[in-house]
Amino acid sequence: MVGESYKIMKRVAVVILNWNGKDFLQKFLPSVLSSCSSFNREQTTFKAEVVVADNASCDSSKEVFSSIVAEGKKGNISADCHWIGLDKNYGFTGGYNRAISILAKGSHIGKNKSAEGNHYDYYVLLNSDVHTPNGWLLPLLSFIDENAHVGVCQPKILSYSSLHSFDKSDIYFEYAGASGGFIDRYGFPFCRGRILSHIEKDGGQYDTPIRTFWATGACMVVSSALWEKLQGFDEAFFAHMEEIDFCWRAALCGYQIWSIPQSAVYHVGGGTLPNNSPRKLFFNYRNNLLMLRKNLPAKGRCRVLFIRKVLDGLSALAYLLQFKFSFALAVLRGHKDFADRRFCLGHSRFADRCDLRHDRRLLRRQGGFYHDARDRSDRGHPLAGHCHAADDGSQARAVHHHHRPDDIRMDRH
Description:
The chain is an alpha/beta fold. It contains twelve helices and 15 strands.
């Protein structure tokens, strides 16, 4: 009977990507192991395993990992935990792609163990600087499992500095993801709970589940079927905004992205690259342009990119006037690198068949920037342009639909 119940349980891999993050592992891995062990004991639908994928760290991350796992086995930690060591730093995109490929093949469990039935139903991508309290995982998995049209979801992302706050009115959202992500008509991302650099307090104003445009890579649940269909992240991005590109491609394939605030985690943020890093600024500006070039329909794409280049130029000028020369240079380098890459960049065939005029009309009805997103939970983001393949695969039309088409294929970008 035990064996039979195990076979029908849906397998979940909580994958933590690490790069020289021994301090974060020491601080946060125990909470992940503890919450996943509690999760496994309290229900019989899912079985969670924890995987640390290491991007060739040169610190003592592996020794810290081994010590935490050994200590956990002495206590009440029952979740399986695996270490996947990569041969070099492949970045956020390549690191996750390779780690999940290894998981899908079952090669992480060792040569002496059987990989039979080693299929995972869901992957949880989790940053190494995230504290996970008990009860965070079940609302996410229950929602995505019960709604076949949902391919990605995220919890509420709160600031780690608010975790031990005695004043409940002093809890803030965290910059990366907050309570669900959107983009405006020119591709600038923002969140429920965070517009530009303004971060709101969490007063329960965004406690309703809502369909969003993107989910944060700090903590996102992805169905394995969708991951395989999209072939993971686009490695041209390396790091930053790859999750927005992934969610956009998912939407073009007919999947939905949701924020589930009944689950909450606490994120430090800026663990690999600080928010004020010129290198991070370079990735953000370059990758935003790559994302627009890939996913916008051909009609109107050049106009949007032209406006973005003008706005980004003004941004670089503002940095110069503030004597932030390294920041201005990062913007210019981002645009130069985009120009070098744009002609060899793949483009979604479905994006070309979407009606951008329809997207603009929807955007105007939603008030342009979608500020009051909590009152529009039944509307998708205008730039999603959900495309649906015809039966013969020769045509596609822009529709808003509530099922997961099985006949759509996405080219690797």
